[in-house]
Write a structure and sequence with these properties.
- By secondary structure, the chain is mostly helical.
- It has a domain at about 1-75.
- It is about 60% helix and about 0% strand.
- The chain has helices at about 10-15, 25-35, 50-65, 75-80, 90-100, 100-115, 120-135, 145-155.
- The longest helix is centred in the last third of the chain and has 17 residues, at about 100-115.
- It is elongated, with a radius of gyration of 16 Å.
- About 35% of the residues are buried.
- This is DUF5071 domain-containing protein.
Length: about 160
Amino acid sequence: MNEYVILEDEEIIHYVDNLNWNLPKDIQRESMEVLSQVHPDKVDLLIPKFGKETWGNAIYILRKMGYPRNRGALPLLAGQIMDRNWPGSLEALEIFREIGKRMSTPFIENECSKAIKQKDNDWLEHLQYACESLGITEEDFNDAQQYKMMITLAEQ
């Protein structure tokens, strides 16, 4: 049986803030050690909406945790693919590669739906790159029209 560190949400957020790449390495390492033991029900707290300075370290922890332990963070990891220049974005893509196309596709397709609604062609281009990288094709999407729209808009 796995042993997890029991932390309140506020404590997790404190440690996540200490993943900031501008802080001393020993503070980052200590936070990474603690957060790597967070219960699977709390892994979604590792990736804050704001705070790009923490994303790379947080995604590193989630990759190290592996699937299925990092499952709760997968929707947020898919959101990191919005821009593959963001810290940790390519590492997030590797997490999806590790869990496989069948498990990854619904998360990528969901992000695709959001990007189409927002008419964000740059985001769609990054998602197209993710699909190509992961071997996700039109046949893998539940909504083939959405895939086609992603390709069309990404190339504009």
